[in-house]
Amino acid sequence: VLESNAATGGTDKLSLSVMTDVTELKASEDRNHRQAITDHLTGLLNRQGFEAVLDRKIAEADAAGQELACLFVDLDRFKWINDNMGHAAGDAALRDLVSRLQKCMTPGDIAARLGGDEFAMLLLAENAEARAIEMTALIAEVFEAPFVGDARLSASIGIAIYPRQAANAAELLLKSDIAMYAKKRDGKNGAQIFDNGMLDDSRRRAELE
């Protein structure tokens, strides 16, 4: 009996050790996954994480019979901060911006840093265009206060709506990007909703190049 008990105790310890190893491995995998989809400067999703969430939000929109707005946000004059004040100042400005943007968001809204000074937001709503217009007004207020070293920034924002203007995630992101560049060419500092004329113009430019 004593030998049996000792053997059982040894098995219990082995089982506990295996369970601990599996739990630690799962936690490590989760950490690695979070790191892979997170922008380390701002704590937002990175492009990889955003593209994965975009597919999920489109599925949510389909299931709920709602629309999804994608806002492509590109900062105006951000390069001036990096060039004249240094990259540390640029990093501080980006962190400050994200803190301000998060105060504009409601539960369910998604924000990501796609790279450099490019950001994206996803807004799920019955009328996603109206919700996007409301958000762009809030974003404009974010830029009223100066950033690091009293530097002033603004943003050019492109908006595309699923499923009205895009049939899938890649198309939604592309068309919001096209709308953003149309706003850049139109004088920056504001928002532009995608229309098919922009796509034709983009194709003509690509062919010309």
Widest sheet: strand order?
2-3-1-4-5
Helix content: 55-70%
Strand elements, count: 5
**Large-scale geometry:** globular
Q: Structural class from helices and strands? A: alpha+beta
Radius of gyration over all CA atoms, rounded: 23 Å
What does this structure look like?
The chain is α+β, with helices and mostly antiparallel strands and 209 residues long. The protein contains seven helices and five strands; from the N terminus they run ααβααββαβαβα. It has helices at residues 2-36, 47-64, 78-85, 87-104, 128-142, 169-185, 196-208, and strands at residues 67-76, 110-115, 118-125, 154-162, 190-193. It has a five-stranded mixed sheet, with helices on both faces. Helix 6 (169-185) links the parallel strand 4 (154-162) and strand 5. It is globular, with a radius of gyration of 23 Å. It starts with a helix and ends with a helix. The model is unreliable at 1-7 (pLDDT under 50).
List keywords for this structure.
209 residues; alpha+beta; disordered N terminus
Question: How would you summarize what this structure contains?
Answer:
This protein is α+β, with helices and mostly antiparallel strands and 209 residues long. 59% of the residues lie in helices and 18% in strands.
Map the helices and strands.
Elements: H1 2-36, H2 47-64, E1 67-76, H3 78-85, H4 87-104, E2 110-115, E3 118-125, H5 128-142, E4 154-162, H6 169-185, E5 190-193, H7 196-208
Parallel strand pairs: 4-5
Antiparallel strand pairs: 1-3, 1-4, 2-3
Helix pairs in contact: 3-4, 4-5
